[in-house]
Amino acid sequence: MPLFHHARYVLTAARWDQLPADGQPEVAFAGRSNAGKSSAINALANHTRLAFVSKTPGRTQQINFFALRESGFLVDLPGYGFAKVPQPIKESWEGFLGRYLMERSALAGLVVVMDSRHPFTALDVQLLEWFALTGKPVHVLLTKADKLTQSERQRALAQVEMTINRPDLHLPETLSAQLFSASRKQGLEQAESVVAPWLGLAAPQNKGP
Ligand SMILES: Nc1nc2c(ncn2[C@@H]2O[C@H](COP(=O)(O)OP(=O)(O)OP(=O)(O)O)[C@@H](O)[C@H]2O)c(=O)[nH]1
Ligand SMILES: [Mg+2]
Q: Is the pLDDT of residue 207 over 70?
C-alpha cells in the first residue's frame, strides 16, 4: 500500500495559533500559484478531491493539513507569484507563510512544485535561497510533465540538474529534482521514496520490473 494513500484532511490554518501542536513531522508543498501543488498531493494520496484544485490561481490562501495513515502530515501551501491577490491579503499570508517556512519546527522538508515547462523562475530561486537558511532538505517536482514530449522532458530535467549545481546560487544543500505528472500519475513512487524518510517512514519498496 503506497504510503500516502488514505491521507485525510485535518485542518486549515490561517494564523500561527491555528497550526497543529508541533509533534509529528510534516512535509509542505510550496510553489508558484497554479503550479500544481494541490494536484500533486491528490495524486500522491490517490484521491481526486482531497486538496482543493482550482482553475482560478491564487485561491488557496491558507495552510491545509492532511494526516497520513501511519504518522505525519502533508501540508498544502498557498501559491506565490499571483499578482491579482489584493495587497492586504497578500501581505498577511506572506507574513504567515514566511514564518511557517522559517520557524515551524515540525516541518521536516519542502517539496517545491514547478511547472516543468518553465522551472526555476526568479521567485522559485528566491524561495529556495531563503529556505536554504533552515538547512532542511528540498525536493523539486517538475510537474505537468505530460505536457512535454519525451525529449523535452529529458532536456528540462538536465537543465534543472545544471541549475541545482550552479555555484553562484545559494540553494539548499540537500536538493533533488524529478519529473512528475499528477494527471498521468507519473513519478509517484520516486517522490514517495524521497519524502518518506523525512517523515520518519520507511521508503516504499520498489516494485519489480
Ligand atoms: N496536464 C496537467 N495539468 C495539471 C497537472 N497538475 C495540475 N494541473 C492543472 O493545473 C491547474 C492548477 O493545479 P492546482 O493543483 O490547483 O495548482 P496549485 O499549485 O495548488 O494552485 P494554487 O493553490 O492556486 O497555488 C489545474 O487546472 C490542474 O488541473 C499535471 O500534472 N498535468
Ligand atoms: Mg492549491
A: no
130 CB-near residues (< 8 Å, 6+ apart): 101, 102
In a mutational test of the pocket of ligand 1, which residue from 29, 32, 33, 34 has the highest number of ligand atoms less than 8 Å from its CB? Answer: 34
Assess whether pLDDT exceeds 80 at residue 7. Answer: yes
What's the confidence (pLDDT) of residue 162? 96
The residue whose grid cell reads 492586504 is: 88
Closest by CA to 24, choosing from 52, 66, 76, 77, is 66
The number of the ligand 1 atom at minimal distance from the alpha carbon of 59 is 24
Residue 56: CB within 6 Å of ligand 1?
Answer: no
When comparing pLDDT for 49 and 60, which is higher?
Answer: 49
CATH of the domain at 86: 3.40.50.300
How confident is the model over 46-55, as a mean pLDDT?
71
Q: pTM higher than 0.85, yes or no?
A: yes
Cβ 144 under 6 angstroms from ligand 1: yes
Residue 1 counted as domain residue? no
Range of the domain at 91: 8-198
- Position 3 in a domain: no
Whether 2 is covered by a domain: the verdict is no
Ligand closest in space to the Cα of 34? 1
